[in-house]
Fold this protein.
Amino acid sequence: MRDYLVLLIGEETEADDPSSEEFWAEIALYERFNELAEHAIVDGHALEPSTLGITFRYQADGPVLVTEGPYTEATEVAGGLYVLRAEDLDEVIELARHIPAASKGCVEIRPMVSLWRSDTPRPDGNDRYLALLRCKDDGTVHSPTWDATAAQRAIFEEGHRASLLSGATLHPGSMATTLRVRDGQPQISDGPFADPTEVVGGYYLLHASSRPEAAAIAQDIPLAPGGFIELRPRVESRGA
Amino acid sequence: MDVDHRTIDRIFREESGRALATVARIIGDLDLAEDAVQEAFVIALRVWPERGTPAAPGAWITTTARNRAIDRLRREQRRSAKERSATDPADRAQTGTHEDEVHPVPDDQLRLMFTCCHPALSPAAQVALTLRLVSGLTTEEIARAFLTPVPTIAQRLSRAKAKIRHARIPLRVPPADLLPERLPGVLACIYLVFTEGYAATHGDRLIRRELCNEAIRLATLVTDLLPNEPEASGLLALLLFQDSRRETRQSDTGALVVLEDQDRQRWDHDRIAAGQQRLEQALALSRPGRYQLEAAIAAEHARATTWEDTDWPTIATLYTELHRIAPSPVVELNHAVAISYAQDIAAGLALLDTISDDRRLALSHRLPAVRADLLRRAGRQQDAIAAYREALTKARSTPEAQLLHDRLTELGGSP
């Protein structure tokens, strides 16, 4: 059995607006997927729109560059993710083809090197944020940009243990598979969806009592040349 | 000693694909299986010159490789007993004793083919991996065949194998419900191997002929193991028909000879007969598909004793059907030619107009070349000259350019 990250990618539309009908129709589709894949879902997170994100970019001659909003001009962004546990790639594909995002946009399937989840209780009132670690991935079997910060990441994790809920390391983009479903037929292709300079190498799920607090934590995540963090608030279900 | 080495090379080339496929099935690890077959090769080099080649070399290689693989798994087991997972390959491999002779099973190669042609691998990787693991070509031979540097092929192979390992691409023939989705990829890969060998406008002629033969062998394997898949026999029929013309496609000077001018006496009529048989086998299943249609078109050309005898109306109808199920601008180009004979040249030109803006044809010489031919046949000399000139600016290979150049000068034009 192996864990796979499935990144949901698509255009941000009215369906992301909680006041729209499309939003609730989509929620229903996702609930159906969650039932279908229940045995395989290890984790799942929906992300708030990218306009609410923050980007932290490596700078050679200065501190990390912080910008509000989406990190890219591109219209297709990550809208959420699942962690699925499966025997092999075909099993993941057979599940992932039922994810609504696969039919509207695409999903990027990434085998994981490691995944950890902490038992740290999350205080009420603390929201969750996902820090996607993106870097330059030159398509080799190892990602040198990612490997460069491995030791420092361990130090970061130690120092922020109380705030981190889970973390994952992924095999490089050359091990990725992209899946689209069109007219009910799967279209499977080799490689990540992302641009080679923006491939996800791993992520942290963290919790914080405020957006500035979350940003402060994300700012500490070690970066190498070509690396940056895409910090996105997680959709929280409030109340009933 | 040299003779023995070459003999051993040849035997391994013929048998290692089967051996690898079987050992991979038994131990469930493609990399380990590949290493084990390599080890068996080294042992053979040492042992066979003394004892002679075994009566059943395939079984010897498979058994030896299987044993080496199990030995290695056991060594690793002892070293890391704590890290053993529930589905330990060494446990799975305890089928039979060490001494049992292992015979390759045909299904094993089919399994390996589906793994090498998995859609999560790029088409280039699928072709390289199939040639390396199923066909037993060396990295150097693959590089030579594709006129690509050896390190590029080596890296492509290593990345593909790493992906199979890390992404866990399964080692199996897909279950029945997935087969319709996955078979086209295998067939397309085999067709790519054939096309590479058939193109024959440059490079090592010997290795290119070998690619055609290998593609036919792989198509035969898939067809015989999946007798209910008409597209598999359809592809095999198509390859046989195309291969039957191989000797007449180029003149002694390397110039391209178009179908119209090929010496039909020198077509391989055994291949044609085999192609007919496979086509009938496919059509009997009454599930039409693109390879069957392309094979039927090729069969019409093979049937005609001369170019003038060609049944163009039937071919045109087949192209109409092919366009319906597998549309592509190249199909339409051929369709236009067929229509120009079945109906008239104006109808062919009209069809060309409908694809003149297709971006996929923009860089190719083919659209202007076909238009030029039609215009030439219609007696529109100046228009034909202009079209040949346009085609020449886009021609990518010397034989193609030479052909266009010759047509141009025949008309009294100059590039």
In short: The mean pLDDT of chain A is 91. Chain A touches chain B at residues 2, 87-90, 109, 111, 139-141, 171, 174-177, 185-186, 188-191 (CB under 8 Å). The longest strand of chain A covers residues 106-117. The two ends of chain A are 35 Å apart (CA to CA).
